[in-house]
Amino acid sequence: GSAYTLPNTATQLTNATPAANGTNGQLTLSDALAYSSNTAFAQLGVALGGDAIAEQAKKFGFGQSITVDGSASTGSPMKAVASTFPSNLPSDKLALASIGQGDTLETPLQNAMIAAAIANGGTLMQPTLVDRVRASDLSTISETGPTVMSQTMSSNTASALTGMMEDVVTKESPTLAIDGVKVAAKTGTAQIGADNQSTDAWMMGFAPADNPQIAVAVVVHNVNTFGVTAAGPIMKQVMEEALKQ
């Protein structure tokens, strides 16, 4: 619907676009994703419960600092701060956390890893900063091998979600389209600051959707517009550059 009253409050959560309201209170999951329906995902979060969402977030890497280079044994490991999904929330706060508002905290790396996991059939990989180290004669001294972190979802679910993320581009955000390339993406607009006067504009996705080569996450901090507007063009440019033959 057009508004959802947060449980046990008088606060109404609304959507940014009429398309996100659905028809007669009904909306497909695909359209909810494509049109960023706050009301749909807030209600879904409450229905699923905080434990289920926290468990899924944990599979993606939430709740742990992620080492991107080095190790405890080599010294000076480079770590990304842990993303967090809040626990033990009352239903009204859970509704907000479920759409990335409230106390949900996420790093750009974490969001890129989620995009990559979906692209990778649900398999989350350990991120690395250095691919290989070469000597002066270009012989390889050391090489980083791929390491699986977790299976976040089934390959069937990842495939279905990929299709929905393609709908984000084809249904709602055609400005993200790249000629001859299928793009899977998700927009995000997180309200921040006093009285939610500002936003963090988010964009994440991967391409080509049918043969993924690159996953990207972009956040533009403290702007007054939507994720697709501020961060979308940056993601698109990075993808286009990476996919140049």
Which key phrases capture this entry?
alpha+beta, 3-stranded antiparallel beta sheet
Polypeptide structure, described:
It is a single chain. The chain has a domain at 1-62 and 84-103. The radius of gyration is 19 Å and the shape is globular. Helix content is 33%, strand content 23%. It is of the alpha+beta class and 245 residues long. It has helices at residues 29-34, 38-48, 50-60, 91-97, 108-119, 155-172, 227-230, 232-242; strands at residues 3-5, 12-14, 66-69, 78-80, 123-125, 132-134, 140-143, 148-151, 184-192, 198-207, 214-223. It is built from eight helices and eleven strands. The strands form five sheets. The chain has a three-stranded antiparallel β-sheet.
* Overall SS class: alpha+beta
Helical residue percent? 25-40%
How many helices in DSSP terms?
A: 8
Secondary-structure element pattern, one letter each: EEHHHEEHHEEEEHEEEHH
Mean pLDDT across all residues, rounded? 94
Rg from Cα: 19 Å
